[in-house]
């Protein structure tokens, strides 16, 4: 009996001493980026991955799985192990808007959010030689003619311009393009009246190559207060931000350590310089719970937008 008790005690001590997830991470972490290599989102993810390695003490390996605005990466990551060694990088609309289109099998409830690391600028841009210099002038021109030609990138920007077209009683001819570069080329070439763009349009506006005439960010563009926000004009906005996430049911300790690593990573000089001066986004950080709440609020707003278009 004494021998049995000794064996039980030794086994219990060994179990209690087992590292389990308490020592996470014990091997490299894979970060699946939902966008092509070399773009602004990919560059931001790689800078953050490098900074995360310092806090985690392990390599963070970036793997690109672009497609469908982050949906391809989301589908992949949500079916991986919940141990925290496979995480994803997408954008807020990947979860707040894309599931509303019915084109994906996931919802925001199918992943665990880790953090929001930075914000994106989204704008409407017009050709430099357009016969208008601001949003009001563009609407007046479109009304006189009866329609406007619009370069679109994603389903959300199409939904917003269709809503505005209904409000202004102007027909909108959608011109699909391949990504932000395609939309900007359509604007630069004068092939459309306006086009949707990310923050890349801002330096082009400042150089006089195009005219940014409206901001889709809820609070507008701080360095260009003269550019109106559509939230003030029509009560609609595109609230876009970079989001890190993992599979549903992610190990709590791993998630907390990843969140803490990202909270430190966004403070690095390299990342701050990139966001503000090269990417032309804006600094913001939300933990996992706040990210989930923000996406849920955005989804409700987008539901109302789609319902208004369908009326």
Give a brief outline of the structure.
The chain is α/β, with parallel strands linked by helices and 311 residues long. It has helices spanning 2-17, 40-56, 71-77, 92-96, 135-145, 155-168, 179-188, 201-206, 230-233, 252-265, 269-278, 288-310; strands spanning 29-33, 60-64, 86-91, 111-119, 123-127, 147-152, 171-176, 194-197, 210-215, 241-247, 282-287.
Quote the distance from N terminus to C terminus: 79 Å
Q: What is the makeup of the main sheet?
A: 6 strands, mixed
Question: Treating each run of at least 4 consecutive H or I residues as one helix, how many helices?
Answer: 12
Shape: globular
Count of β-strands: 11
Order of adjacent strands in the largest pleated sheet: 2-1-3-10-4-11
Structural class, from helix and strand content? Answer: alpha/beta
Q: Work out the radius of gyration.
A: 23 Å
Task: Please report which band the strand proportion falls in: under 5%, 5-15%, 15-25%, 25-35%, 35-45% or over 45%.
Answer: 15-25%
Secondary-structure element order, N to C: HEHEHEHEEHEHEHEHEHEHHEH
Percent helix: 40-55%
Mean pLDDT: 92
Low-pLDDT residue spans: 1-21
Can you characterise this structure?
The chain is globular and about 65 Å long. The longest helix is centred in the last third of the chain and has 23 residues. With 311 residues, it is α/β, with parallel strands linked by helices. It has twelve helices and eleven strands. The N terminus is likely disordered. Helix 6 packs across helix 12. The protein starts with a helix and ends with a helix. Strand 1, helix 2 and strand 2 form a beta-alpha-beta unit.
């Amino acid at each position: 009996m004494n021998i049995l008790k000794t064996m039980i005690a030794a086994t219990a001590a060994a179990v209690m001493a087992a590292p389990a997830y308490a020592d996470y991470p014990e091997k490299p972490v894979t970060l699946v980026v939902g966008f092509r290599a070399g773009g602004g989102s990919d560059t931001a993810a790689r800078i953050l991955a490098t900074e995360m390695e310092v806090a985690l003490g392990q390599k963070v390996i970036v793997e690109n799985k672009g497609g469908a605005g982050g949906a391809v990466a989301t589908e992949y990551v949500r079916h991986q192990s919940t141990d925290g060694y496979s995480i994803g990088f997408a954008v807020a609309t990947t979860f707040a808007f894309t599931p509303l289109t019915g084109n994906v099998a996931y919802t925001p409830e199918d992943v665990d959010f880790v953090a929001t690391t930075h914000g994106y600028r989204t704008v409407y841009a017009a050709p430099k030689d357009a016969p208008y210099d601001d949003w009001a002038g563009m609407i007046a021109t479109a009304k006189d003619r009866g329609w406007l030609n619009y370069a679109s990138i994603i389903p959300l920007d199409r939904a917003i311009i269709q809503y505005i077209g209904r409000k202004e009683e102007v027909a909108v001819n959608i011109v699909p393009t391949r990504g932000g570069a395609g939309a900007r080329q359509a604007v630069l070439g004068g092939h459309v009246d306006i086009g949707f763009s990310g923050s890349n349009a801002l330096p082009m506006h400042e150089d006089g190559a195009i005219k940014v005439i409206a901001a889709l960010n809820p609070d507008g563009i701080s360095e260009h207060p003269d550019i109106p926000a559509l939230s003030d004009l029509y009560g609609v906005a595109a609230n876009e931000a970079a989001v890190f996430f993992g599979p549903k049911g992610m190990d709590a300790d791993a998630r907390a350590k990843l969140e803490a690593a990202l909270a430190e990573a966004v403070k690095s000089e390299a990342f701050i310089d990139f966001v503000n001066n090269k990417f032309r986004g804006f600094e913001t950080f939300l933990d996992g719970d706040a990210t989930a709440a923000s996406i849920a609020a955005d989804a409700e707003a987008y539901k109302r937008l789609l319902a208004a278009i369908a009326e």
